[in-house]
Amino acid sequence: MTVPVWLWLATIGGLLALIAVDLVIVDRKPHEVTTGEAARWVIFYISCAVVFGIGVWVLGGHDPGVEFFTGYITEYSLSVDNLFIFMVIMASFRVPAIHQHRVLLIGILLALVMRGAFIAVGAALINRFVWVFFLFGAVLVWTAYSMVRDKGGHEEYQENAVTRWVRKIFPVTDDYVGHHTVVKQNGKRYLTPMAVVIVAIGSADLLFAVDSIPAIFGITQDAYLVFTANAFALMGLRQLYFLLGGLVNKLVYLSYGLAVILGFIGLKLVLHALHEYHVTPSWLEINNWVSLGFIVTVLTITTIASLMKAKRDPGATGKLNLSAAAPEQAEPEDEAAGSRPEK
Predict the structure, then answer these.
(1) 188-191 and 182-185 as β-strands: parallel, antiparallel, unpaired?
(2) Distance of alpha carbon 13 from alpha carbon 163, whole angstroms
(3) 10 Å Cβ neighbour count for 174?
(4) Model confidence over 286-321: pLDDT tens digits?
(5) What DSSP string describes 253-311?
(6) Is the dihedral of CA 83, 87, 93, 94 positive or negative?
(7) Mean pLDDT of all residues in the chain?
(8) What is the pLDDT of residue 324?
(9) What pTM did the predictor assign?
(10) From CA 251, how far away is CA 153, in angstroms rounded?
(11) 63-99 in b/e burial notation, b at 16+ Cβ within 10 A?
């Protein structure tokens, strides 16, 4: 699908407008996001994605429309798995509940910018080198294997290289100072833990792109569809974090379902590459309708099985138990001490 420059600019402008609305309405006054508020925003963002997908279908044709919806569902599903890491980071940094929305908003906005660069590089490589499909396929199959081998678990959060670099280069205050990311003390500027946790969220999400970007390139090689599917998935992720809360920990089989999906897309990439090299016949390629049906079916089975398991065994958890390390609530000007992750 050929996308003119003006449509790229209009799309980016529309996404920025949505973020601005979020900033003005939700984040104007720091507060703890309620379940009802989060639910309304999740419905809003999903509706935006659906309307956009319908527009792609009507204006671009049914093939791009199916590719967008398949990519969006895949990215959103992978994003749900990312929520576990976000919960660990929030708990480790003891982010006050009233400031968690701002942390997620800015962190994910940074991640979206970095993913845009990643997508541009990936699209350029795919257009020039067919062997990149083998590489992406291998990454997805390995990721799927790792998820099954680790039984869907996440270890205790350890600061990544980017976060450690920020701490090394910039002085950081011991405590939160309202929602500020930079403060001046004794004539010297300091970062606050708010800035560090934003970097942690953004850089962690960028690492997730190592499997999510190849996954969507296995569905469509159109950079525009790849970017928009990622954008809508990320923008709805913040509110999903508050909506699901501890409930997401009950999706005990989610990682297994995602592993099956990643393995399936990895196989699809390999078959596509073999066809490009004229090794396999065209009928062996997996079309987008089959991909969409397979992904929806796996997610449905995974969700139902997880909820049934949670009902039979209320103590079962898919990832971790954050009850002992839940973020403490604090007033804007009297934030919780001990903001740095415990080592």
Answers:
(1) antiparallel
(2) 30
(3) 11
(4) 887 888 899 899 989 988 998 888 788 766 555 544
(5) THHHHHHHHHHHHHHHHHHHHHHHTTSS-GGGSPPHHHHHHHHHHHHHHHHHHHHHHHH
(6) positive
(7) 80
(8) 36
(9) 0.76
(10) 12
(11) bbbbbbbbbbbbbbbbbbbbbbbbbbbbbbbbbbbbb
> Rounded distance, CA 327 to CA 90, Å?
7
- Give the HSE-up count for residue 215: Cα atoms under 13 Å, Cβ half-sphere: 32
What does the alpha-carbon distance between residue 76 and residue 58 come to, in Å, rounded to a whole number? 23
User: Which DSSP state fits 337?
Assistant: S
DSSP 324: G
Q: In the chain, where does DSSP find H-type helix?
A: 5-25, 35-60, 62-93, 100-128, 132-149, 161-169, 193-217, 223-244, 254-276, 288-312
Any bridge partners for residue 36, and if so which? Answer: none
Using CA atoms, how far apart are residues 196 and 213, in angstroms rounded to an integer? 25
CA distance 98 to 104: 12
Weakest mean pLDDT among 204-208, 233-237, 254-258: 204-208
- Say how far apart CA 199 and CA 103 lie, in whole Å: 9
CA 95/CA 87 separation, integer angstroms: 10
**From CA 301, how far away is CA 306, in angstroms rounded?**
8
Does residue 93 or residue 337 have the better pLDDT? 93
Rounded Cα gap, residues 194 and 222, in angstroms: 36
